Amino acid sequence: MVFSAFFGSLxxxxxxxxxxxxxxxxxxxxxxxxxxxxxxxxxxxxxGKMFVLSKVDSGGSSVNRVLYAFSGSTAWDASSxxxxxxxxxLNKLAGDADTGFTDITSEDxxxxxxxxxxxxxxxxxxTTAWDITTISSTIVxxxxxxxxxxxxxxxxxxxxxxxxxxxxxxxxRRLRCLDISSGLSSATEIYDIDINPTxxxxxxxxxxxxxxxxxxxxxxxxxQYSIDSSAGTATREVTIDTTLFTPSITNPRxxxxxxxxxxxxxxxxxxxxxxxxx
Length: 278
Hints:
Elements: E1 2-3, E2 24-31, E3 42-44, E4 50-53, E5 68-71, E6 82-86, E7 103-105, E8 111-116, E9 120-125, E10 141-144, E11 154-158, E12 161-165, E13 174-179, E14 188-194, E15 200-205, E16 211-216, E17 221-228, E18 233-241, E19 252-258, E20 261-266, E21 271-277
Antiparallel strand pairs: 1-2, 2-21, 3-4, 4-5, 5-6, 7-8, 8-9, 9-10, 11-12, 12-13, 13-14, 15-16, 16-17, 17-18, 19-20, 20-21
């Protein structure tokens, strides 16, 4: 179907976003439940021929903090893709929970960031771009988010900035921006802004830093915000109800975009859904 409105996406790789007044065509989807019980974070390879997903497990499972690649020969046709690669289990700090990543992000397919909710954000590196089997389990850097009152954080890397959301109590529903130019372990906070949707999940911030897009898993919605970092304010501009699509998006989590294509991870249906902006 075509949803004639703005689809504010949590995009991770597009240089600029201006989708107000556009329409969104729901193109195809891939059920990943046979590999991943609940799709969580998502990163799209720029050519649209591979998507990398994270999931959340608990209880010391041997498949925690593992990434899964789904690939095909036709760009942006998730329905024809298959599970083609799995990363090794990536290390965590001793004090952090033994769970998976609530979100992941990468711009270049070499540097990968994952977050364990209410614990730490991690940086890992691979040796071959977009080959997740080459990602070393060694932690390159980490940044503690413990005690910030949120869980299931969303991530977006853009150049030397790393953005993340919290979704705990009302006071903890924040968008934060880190300067990671000296590495994640030496990151400094640039801003901390109140966003306060009911349950913020994934996040994308445009390359100019002026627009943020955040999914809300409780309201099954996607929001667009105008960000004024100097004033420390975020103004909600657009709300999209994801249940109006067919099939409906019951639990929107991670999202990525390239050009006019959007890839969304739906935790509730455990699928990858592809949209075109028209």
